[in-house]
């Protein structure tokens, strides 16, 4: 599928306002139109009760506010999986923005890739009026990398995916820099990258292959900086001190995955979803 060209959007004013330092979560900076669009999307009937139940852990409005989302942006969501965040981004961007969804390769070698892609397409087909304007592309490491036209988007987001790029399924870390470079290339100068992932607290003790699903903020920041990004914000809004990170099936032991099924389900339900970091990066203008 050909990727349509987009006329440039001036993001310089927004970029100049970004603090070039790690900062605490500020008061909401959402404009009224963006806030209304997000509120409507989050409360929308197209979202299942199960997905809405995750809002307490994932705080989508606060996360998108922190990373600088606006409803008139061109946004790239990398590996949206079955579309939990797409259900919020697509309707919020529908009137004035554009959403690129860089999915898995439909011919990917791993079953979870095909399953999630299938769920994603089913979701789009069930509510076509919400999703018809999404531009579906692919990120298939290490070769299929153009997720949007070069330097065409204002914001790139990826949720709970970075740890995958260090696993043995993706070159044991060899593909991580390629993925970060692809995101950098898609952003306009002055654009922002937002990342959420399961947090490992100590880079000295983390699994190099992230086999338990956790990755350190330090490792993530180092990889982003290696391709030219500058870290501009870090938030603990998704911190969960109950998460001991020593679960039998890694992070997938916790909800919503419950990898052990009913075994000790009440225990893991009481912990809740994983401890997570939220990071924001800038692609420099100069």
Question: Would you spell out the secondary-structure blueprint of this structure?
Answer:
Blueprint (H helix, E strand, L loop, with lengths): L11 H5 L15 H12 L5 H5 L1 H4 L1 H8 L6 E5 L7 H8 L4 E6 L7 H16 L1 H4 L3 E4 L14 E7 L16 H11 E12 L18 H10 L3 E6 L29 H7 L4 E7 L4
Parallel strand pairs: 1-2, 1-4, 2-3, 4-5
Antiparallel strand pairs: 5-7, 6-7
Helix pairs in contact: 2-6
Spans where pLDDT lies below 50 across 5 or more residues:
1-25
Distance between the termini: 32 Å
Specify the overall morphology. Answer: globular
Would you identify the CATH architecture? 3-Layer(aba) Sandwich
Largest sheet descriptor: 7 strands, mixed
SS-based class: alpha/beta
Strand order of the largest sheet: 3-2-1-4-5-7-6
* Annotated CATH homologous superfamily: Vaccinia Virus protein VP39
The SSE string, one letter per element, is: HHHHHEHEHHEEHEHEHE
